Description:
By secondary structure, the protein is an alpha+beta fold.
Amino acid sequence: MFGEVISGLGRAKQFLEMPEYKKQFLDKLNFGPFPGTLNLKVDEKELNEFLLEKEKRIIEDFEKNGKKFGSVVCYKIKIGNIPAAIIFPKKSKHAKNVIEIISYVNITKLLKLKIGDKVRLL
């Protein structure tokens, strides 16, 4: 499946750095996330078919200082040989044809990606 690199909302960092999320990502995905996401615009039908072959993993919601933080549905993938995951935060503000990718590295910098570039997901 392919996706087109788009700009993100700039909010993922604060959540990906939270110890409660980081520990669960490490436990369920076998990596701690780099504090940022790669955002891709994809074809919804292709995405749904692609995800049928992947195992769903759930990052549980939690409460901290009286504030609730939502669950996250994850699917392990690869971009080239880079372990990564598509994440769907319960409280996402993205359209259904936009996905967020996390990894243990900054994929955008490592692969020198720019807005409009095409990325293949495995």
